[in-house]
Design goal:
Elements (H helix, E strand, L loop, with lengths): L2 H16 L5 H8 L3 H14 L4 E4 L4 E4 L12 H15 L25 H13 L3 E6 L4 E14 L2 E8 L4 E6 L3 E6 L11 H4 L1 E8 L5 H11 L7 E7 H12 L10 E3 L2
Antiparallel strand pairs: 1-2, 3-4, 3-7, 4-5, 5-6, 8-9, 8-10
InterPro entries: WHD_CapW, WYL_dom
Protein name: WYL domain-containing protein
């Protein structure tokens, strides 16, 4: 099966799962197909996966059956909502058709950090080329010149970071991209991530709801994050370099209750 057909089958399943069914017209619009080609794609899906969907004449669309099992997309609410957010982000970069016509807005994108375009472009070029980059970096109190060997782009706690070896500090650090003021590529020897222990080593994290919160708040948080029958929020196999961001996000002081919502269980 070619890539185009795989994407069409994924589109069909997305509509079946989250949009109440699919029509040839919707498939044609989503991929710029002639209606006849879209009908053939739906037929091909039914032939490859019999019993997955049926035609509902009253609704004039194909709907999933009671025995439907997704083959090309994740039948997971969180994954679907993440997709909705991702496609909205893509739409800010270039035009892309949506697979599900749910009205959606990402309020987090309304707060836009300021980047130095040339600086970020140079750092990312160094990341791709495995090259050492000299940056002018604002580290809270003053500007410093750093030589860095970038090895990963990280998004954490609402900000983009570069994980890199710092040739001045002689250790691996995270650099916030908004604080890169200027950057240029150098011919220094690039240092790989092989010795970045905190990147390669992993740990499990465990949190409990702060018992000092009102009972109603504890119940609401438990409903949001803790599966039925369990008592803690747990993360398995988190990179040590990233664990800090999870701990900081969960354990910072809440603006309403003025205490953290979570406590770390060591």
């Amino acid at each position: 099966m070619n890539h185009d057909m795989l994407r069409r089958f994924a589109f069909i399943e997305t509509r079946l799962l989250w949009c109440g069914g699919v029509t040839a017209g919707e498939l044609a619009k989503g991929f710029g197909l002639a209606r006849q080609n879209a009908q053939q794609s739906i037929k091909a899906y039914c032939q490859r996966h019999p019993g997955q969907m049926e035609y509902d004449r009253s609704r004039r669309r194909h709907v999933r059956t009671a025995t439907f099992e997704a083959q090309y997309v994740q039948n997971n609410v969180s994954r679907f909502l993440d997709y909705q957010r991702a496609i909205s982000q893509v739409a800010h970069f270039y035009e892309e058709s949506e697979w599900c016509d749910i009205p959606f807005i990402d309020a987090d994108t309304l707060i836009k950090p300021i980047y130095d375009s040339n600086g970020v472009q140079t750092v990312l070029e160094g990341l791709r080329q495995q090259a050492v980059v000299e940056i002018e970096y604002w580290s809270k109190t003053k500007t410093q010149t750093r030589l860095i060997s970038p090895h990963h782009l990280v998004f954490a706690d609402g900000r983009y970071h570069i994980r890199a070896y710092c040739h001045e500090a002689l250790q691996y650090l995270d650099f916030v991209l908004t604080r890169v003021m200027t950057a240029r590529l150098t011919k220094e020897l690039w240092v790989s991530s092989d010795a970045d222990k905190n990147w390669h080593l992993r740990k499990n994290l465990r949190f409990r709801i702060n018992p000092n919160l009102p009972n109603s708040a504890q119940d609401a948080i438990r409903l949001d994050y803790i599966p039925t029958g369990e008592n803690f929020l747990e993360f398995q196999g988190i990179r040590i370099a990233l664990a800090y961001y999870i701990e900081r996000r969960l354990c910072r002081k809440d603006w309403l209750f003025e205490i953290p919502l979570w406590e770390i269980i060591e």
